[in-house]
Design a protein that fits this description.
Elements (H helix, E strand, L loop, with lengths): L1 H28 L4 H9 L5 H9 L2 H7 L21 H11 L5 H13 L13 H36 L4 H15 L2 H12 L23 H39 L2 H8 L4 H19 L1 H10 L3 H6 L5 H11 L2 H29 L11
Helix pairs in contact: 1-16, 2-4, 7-10, 7-13, 7-16, 8-10, 9-10, 10-12, 12-16, 13-16, 15-16
Length: 370
């Protein structure tokens, strides 16, 4: 097993490198890079999102506006909207964003910095990428961790019960609920919860926005915990509704597949009670496919599934940070978070494989040469 773990850890290096290469090339050749974003801000053509990003840390843009000149017919530029700007200023802007270097040199320099965990500084926020991620991490961890726990706590028992009582009235009615939960998008359900329970048109039982109250610092520790959990009720409920349906059906189908296997019939023929058959034999085998999907589910909920929920409930987390970085072409934030999240995802896949052996010790990855 130790050899397998080392081999998988070494495999992470080329995999992560390939991810960074492909994304770096695709993003670099896409139109609307950071230089064009800065020019758009100077000429008043920036988007509302970029305006909000640069409002708090727009020193670079403020300095850039000083380079504006009256439009001249002889001034041309490869950047859209840059006609009329001093060419020397455009070169200075390229140097500031690192675009004065060839593509491969920029990539090599970036990867060298990442090896020392130096993710650079945001183009438009005047803050280090690491600081931005650490600031947003508590919100995303709160949403991702609690949602994942609730989804698994609900889905696994429900899926097992549906498999045992397959075809019963309970199975039919819960399937109807699951279909409805799958059909309703999480963000739409979030809006519904706000309207009903957050002072929209009916009752005002839950807070509408934020992760804590304004006077949270003045509260006692028990009051802080209650306030924190109270703020999480609506966003976590909205995210859980969309997440538990798929996992429940996956668990049910996995158990049904195992229940029909020959070894289950043999165990019953030996006189074992149904509870021991289900949880002593079927459970271990049926849970393998559920565990295999845990890393992807956790990463998806943690970093991508909460984007619209963060916007609706005014929660400033990693999903919103990544969206704004992509929209404004804030390359240090984009590539820094991509590197970190890709590395985390690859490590979580390895953790999932290790969990296989905990559920079923008969599985030996090392002997299979994978």
């Amino acid at each position: 097993m130790g050899t397998y773990i080392v081999r998988r850890l070494l495999l992470i290096i080329p995999t992560l490198f390939a991810i960074m290469v492909v994304n770096f090339i695709v993003i670099q050749v896409a139109p609307g890079g950071p230089v064009e974003q800065a020019i758009a801000q100077m000429t008043g053509e920036g988007s509302a999102i970029t305006d909000r990003i640069t409002r708090g840390g727009g020193e670079n843009i403020g300095q850039a506006r000083k380079g504006l000149q009256a439009p001249t017919a002889s001034t041309t530029s490869k950047y859209r909207g840059a006609q009329g700007l001093d060419p020397e200023f455009i070169k200075e802007l390229e140097q500031r964003f690192g675009f004065d270097k060839p593509l491969h040199v920029r990539f090599i320099d970036m990867m060298k910095n990442y090896l020392t965990l130096d993710f650079g500084e945001s183009f438009f926020r005047d803050r280090k990428v690491t600081d931005l991620v650490l600031d947003k991490m508590p919100v995303s961890i709160s949403l991702g961790l609690w949602t994942t726990l609730l989804v698994y706590i609900i889905s696994i028992p429900l899926g097992v019960t549906k498999a045992v009582r397959d075809g019963s009235r309970f199975d039919v009615w819960t399937s109807v609920v699951i279909v409805i939960g799958t059909a309703i998008p999480s963000f739409l359900f979030a809006v519904f919860l706000l309207v009903i329970f957050a002072g929209g048109s009916y009752v005002n039982w839950f807070p509408m926005a934020g992760l804590t109250s304004e006077n949270w610092d003045a509260m006692s520790w028990p009051a802080r915990i209650i306030d924190y959990l109270w703020h999480l009720v609506l966003p976590i409920t909205a995210m859980t509704i969309g997440g538990f349906a798929t996992l429940t059906m996956l668990t049910k189908n996995s158990f049904l597949d195992q229940i029909n296997q020959q070894y289950v019939l043999t165990a019953r023929a030996k006189g074992l009670d149904e509870r021991r058959v289900m949880y002593g034999h079927v459970f271990r085998n049926a849970m393998l496919i559920v565990i295999a999907g845990f890393p992807a589910a956790f990463i998806g909920i943690l970093f991508t599934g909460s984007l619209l929920i963060e916007i609706i409930f005014s929660l400033d987390g990693l999903g919103l940070l990544g969206f704004e970085a992509a929209f404004s072409r804030d390359y240090p934030v984009m590539f820094g978070t991509l590197f970190f999240f890709s590395l985390l995802g690859l490590v979580m896949n390895l953790v999932g494989d290790m969990a296989y052996t905990l559920i079923d010790p008969r599985i030996d990855f090392a002997s299979r040469n994978v």
